[in-house]
Each structure stands twice: as C-alpha cells, then as structure tokens.
Design goal:
4-stranded antiparallel sheet, 5-stranded antiparallel sheet, minor pseudopilin epsh fold, single chain, globular, 34% strand
Length: 118
Amino acid sequence: MRELKIALNQARQLAIARNTSYSVELQTTQNRLRFCTGTATPCPTAAVWTGAGTDGSGWRALDNSARIVLGPQITFSALGAATPSGTLRVQNSSRTSCLDLVVNPSGGSRITAAAACP
C-alpha cells in the first residue's frame, strides 16, 4: 500500500511542479499504473509520463505481489487537488486482507483498514 501511496504522491507532485493536470491510470487486471498529462484515461500515448521505475510505455507494476482490486482513475490538478476523490484498495499477496488508500478532494491520502476484501 505504501508503494501505491508514494506513486500517487509522485503524480500529485508532478502536477504541482509542472503546473498542469496529471491523471493516474490503473489497470487492476495487470496490477500496474501509469501517469499522463491531462484528464483523459486511458492515457493518450503522447501524454504518458515515463521515468524511473516505469517501462517504455510508462507502466509501473506493484513489486511485492500485492494486488490492486479497486481503483478509480484519479486526476490531480496543478494545485494538487484530486478529482474524483475516492478509495483505492490493495489486497495482500496471500489474498487474506486488504487496505484502502483514501484520496481526499484536497489530494492528500491516508491508509485505512478495508471495510471488505474480495
């Protein structure tokens, strides 16, 4: 969960530093995410951000066999606000428990125990 929280914070910081919106595209079936400029998801190829930890298409996989099981597409504005705010859920590698990452409208986030786990 910390890895996902760090990635979302990175997208938020990119939006603030570059004074433009950045969206986070999640692929729960592939257990990966990427960032792109603007508000469109799936990310247009020309808008995909690539950097440390990403492949040539901008995808970053979760490293520890944890699984993203719930994830809205979130966009951070140039001021760092999140639209829509929402909850991302990660299930542990043994599939026995989940944690939620709750993203607030202000763009901040917190890790909480999940109410349910698939």
